[in-house]
Amino acid sequence: MPTTPETQSRLRWFVLALIGVAQLMVVLDATIVNIALPSAQADLGFSDGARQWIITAYALSFGSLLLLGGRLGDLLGRKRVFVIGLTGFAAASAIGGFAPSFGVLVIARALQGVFAALLAPAALSILTTTFTIPEERNRAFGVFGTIAASGAAVGLILGGALTQYLDWRWSMFINVLLAVPAAAAALRLLARDVPVSSRARIDVAGTVTASAGLFALVFGFSNAESHGWGAPLTIAAIAAGVALLGAFVAVERRVANPLLPLRVVADRNRSAGYLAVAAVGAGLFGVFLFLTYYMQQTLGFSPLTTGLAFMPMMAVIIPVGGIAQTRLMPRFGARPLVTIGMLLSAAAMVMFTGVGVHSGYVADILPGLLVMGLGLGLVFAPAMSTATLGVDRSDAGVASALVNTGQQIGGSIGTALLSTLAASAASSFASGRRPSADLAQLAAVHGYTTAFLWSAAIFAIGGLISWAMLSSGAPEVDEEAAAEPVFAH
After folding, report:
1. How far is Cα 224 from Cα 416, in angstroms, rounded to an integer?
2. Fewest CB atoms less than 10 Å from the CB: which of 7, 11, 457, 479?
3. What CATH number is given to the structural domain containing 341?
């Protein structure tokens, strides 16, 4: 294959398309199954109490193994880990699609999370090391950020369509149709990259403390959602998670080949990028989770109609994300963009607090979705780009894993916290009132609007942190950074 500069530049965009498919699978898989759950439950006959494990199994394995997955990409080669992640994700999805029982489906979802923990950081690290020229990097991260921001909505639409017109099992099979061609393209297109060092070893102590700590945190937040924050298991899991992650930091200061070199997070801008991604992950569930409940259970929308209702937000995210990363980021830097985006997202959540039992989509939901699209478009690509900017090639995988870890932990916290607050608000609203036909709906809507208000607070805090920590001005990028080939030839 020719390797002229023109050819290299053209092939980089094929790599972006490949990475985009991988990222879309990982992001949409968090929501596509949500829409299919009622049908899967009716088909396989599992209880309401067991239902949460279809979601939690994926979150636990994905969230706890991300740092290991990212480091394996650095140590074994990004191409190898990327292809393993794709093929494994496809196999796990096929198992889930053919699952004859609840137990098999849970195992398949856990396996999806394992391979997603390999795939997601490998994809982002390939993007980071492929696009080092500032103009191309900005355009590439604009596309990647748009996929990350809108993938959950794509999952709602796709899950609704597949469940409504085919079968819930196609919410799993769709991954096979995406992953297998992507893996074949990766084998042909990507060069076999050189691992960090033949002498490098896996940091066993760091891997155990990080994976166990992240597992305990995600489990604790998931348990809080179903059993409350005061449950002994919730408290024990979260406390164990914090203690194990503290031990992890202590280990990383002393080992020769750390799982997470602390130089990655020592940079103030990168740390701010990770925190911004986590804040968006926490606050965004207020949009997708509770707005989905509101439209389906209160307004009576079908699953497909609910997914389509998010389209205007996606239509705004796509152009705004591109403009933010390609035109505004080089001129102003991430600080004003991420801060303004966070505050706009907070404003959108405040707008949603005005919905009621008899609200209409156009007057009461659409304006907030448009403002949210504007805010997310300003946040995602600049935050992700900043979180991986200037990192050594040898640390690209683990730096990318931190971005995904921030999203996962933020999302877990957001789900548990907002679900608890919404349930408490709904219960308080109904308490002491005379039972009536409308009381249950009024209480539910009060719970949703309470969650929207707290989501607004999360976004506002994220905006303040971004303004305080991010540097002003255009980012500096080393155009000489890309020394190794990224394409097979």
Report:
1. 6
2. 479
3. 1.20.1250.20
For residue 286, what is the enclosing H or E element? helix 268-293
Tally the domains of the chain.
2
Question: What pLDDT was estimated at residue 4?
Answer: 57
CA distances from 312 to 77, 325, 371 (A): 39, 20, 10
Q: What is the pLDDT of residues 300-355, one digit of tens each?
A: 888 788 888 888 988 898 888 888 878 888 888 889 999 999 999 999 999 999 99
Q: Clarify whether residues 190 and 280 are in a common domain.
A: yes
DSSP state of 194: P
Assess whether 224 and 354 both reside in one domain: no
The per-residue b/e assignment along 131-143, b for 16 or more CB within 10 angstroms, e otherwise, is: bbbbebbbbbbbb
Cα separation, 372 vs 309, in Å, equals 13
Any residues with CB less than 8 A from the CB of 342 and at least 6 apart, and which? 276, 279, 280, 375, 379, 459, 460, 462, 463, 466
Residue located via tokens 């348990």: 223
Report which of 483, 270, 254, 259 is spatially closest to residue 391, judged by C-alpha positions: 270
The first and second tokens of residue 290, run together, are: 């509770």
